Amino acid sequence: MLTRQQTLDATYRLRRLRRTKTLRRMVQENTLSPDDFIYPIFVHEGANRREPIASMPGQFRLSVDLLPAEVEQLSALGVPAVLLFGIAGYKDAHASYATQRNGVVPQAIRAIKRANPEVVVITDVCVCAYTEHGHCGIVREDGYVDNDASLNVLAEMALAHAEAGADIVAPSAMMDGQVQAIRETLDEHGFTETAIMAYSAKYASAFYGPFREAADSAPQFGDRRSYQMDPPNAREAVREVITDVEQGADIVMVKPGLAYLDVVRLVRDAVDVPLAVYNVSGEYSMLKAAAERGWIDERAVGLEMLMAFRRAGADLIITYLAKEAAEWLKGS
Ligand code: PBG
Fold this sequence. Notes:
The N and C termini lie far apart (about 45 Å). It is built from twelve helices and twelve strands. By secondary structure, it is an alpha/beta fold. The chain has a single domain (about 30-330), classed as Aldolase class I (TIM Barrel, Alpha-Beta Barrel). The strands form two sheets. It has an eight-stranded parallel barrel, surrounded by seven helices. Ligand PBG binds near residues 126 and 212.
């Protein structure tokens, strides 16, 4: 039998490789880089409009003319991609603004591509910001969100974005078959190279609260539980992801992030396509609020959170922290 001393020397001296910063760097298992970040941007109509979002300090609603400067800043920081959310010019029952060829999102895509064609432009495809009831699909007379009737408008919306030059469309309505409907419509119109990032495992989460203020997209009655996933379920997320991959998703997503890291890992182990995680509005706002009170170190906690997404298996991180984190990483 080994003495305690022998045991320690032989196997348990894990601290040896933690002794210096360089040793730690050498054995670091995961990395974090601005290359992995996707920055969400809220776009509204008008000119020279930069409106702060109260519940998300540091985030703004921007008019299209302000986007070239915004993406220039992002490229300088090494952030490769943006995710665009439109704020409707008007709302109706059928989300007709969502499919307008000259709506605020197509305008934004063209403005960004003109300013810098290298920026990867991703667009959110969902109608909740465009319907007067605030649901993610077309609502039947009895109040139920009609799955199949919603597919057409989502496919048309994705087509409008592809025509304007989006690189990737990101369906987030959680309608069954939305990826297939979009893939077929894009292909029929010759947009075979436009990719799909599917919000595959999107939960009915209270962490979206601040976003709904930002996008003016809160449901006016009921909630999203009949189409978004139920938080107690994890296996079901794998099923959602597999069906999306079968329908043609190029990238899949788990959302929210922090409270769903187990789901990120399950999905990572189940499929080989790139996996994105959405570090959602409520997660951002919690960090900001605690930091504002001086209760936590924003930079350290922010980077630790982002690294956790990578450790759980995410390739890409959609985060409102993209700019700040890119700065923090320069200094680290
Ligand atoms: C649209 C959509 C939502 C978010 C992204 N796309 C809101 C929702 O589903 O209610 C949330 C993003 C965030 O909270 O940062 N359906």
